[in-house]
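Backbone shape codes
____________________
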Amino acid sequence: MKIAVMTDSNSGITQFEGKELGITVVPMPFFIDGNEFLEDITLTQEEFYNKLLGDANVSTSQPSVGYISATWDDLLKENDYIIYIPMSSGLSKSCETATKLSESPNYKDKVFVINNQRISVTQRESVMAALKMIELGYDVNKIVNLLMDYKMNSDIFIMVDTLTYLKKGGRITATAAALGGFLKLKPILLIKGEKLDSFRMRNRTLENAKSIMIEAAKKIRSGYMYEIDNNLDNVEVSVAYSGTDRTNANLFKEEIEKELGLKVTYVNPLSLSVSCHIGPGALAIAITKKIV
């Protein structure tokens, strides 16, 4: 039985990479000053940040039902099943929309929408795990079950460089943003499951933030991730960042590899959907328990 894998651009997988991997990558839509753009098709990383820094009105959206339906119809011409891994349902309604569509008669028991509540490099790991399991000959139900069983075994810590965009999105008040700006705070947020939540709000320097995030990753790695199967060899660490300059991300990668004694798997830009809400200059560490 042939199984197609599909994700969205929040995974950090580009259209070019998608073709190389043999998967379909749905471009996330954005509205900039009222005009629609598609990530990695009509909107590059550079163009996005130029607009964001230029104080344009930038907002996120979700793929249309018609686009998703047409893509599924096309894939089902040559495949028996589709495994679709969109961004976390806690960060967008696109997963919920796709799930409802998959329950319709045309797609029921053919399309499986994986709400494994991940984004960016952790979402990418789910995609790579699905591909590996297909290669190993797992049936579609086993792949779906494993992706869901392991969904919470992942954490992302993100240092935010500016509070401007959190204020714009209504996640913090104007007063808190002004005070944080005055104190030059660089808060650390946590993405786990359905939430983008606070982890350490009163942090003031990049170097301190990196140390805090590495220590948090160490505790998780030797804590619940080790306790799952008493194995550390299947724990993956990646780096993500927002903006077009990856200098700090590369330095962070070197520090992580030195401190944790393992190789960083990916250094990828954060998805534009996340970057839209936290702005440029963010730096993140992701730690994930691999499925296979």
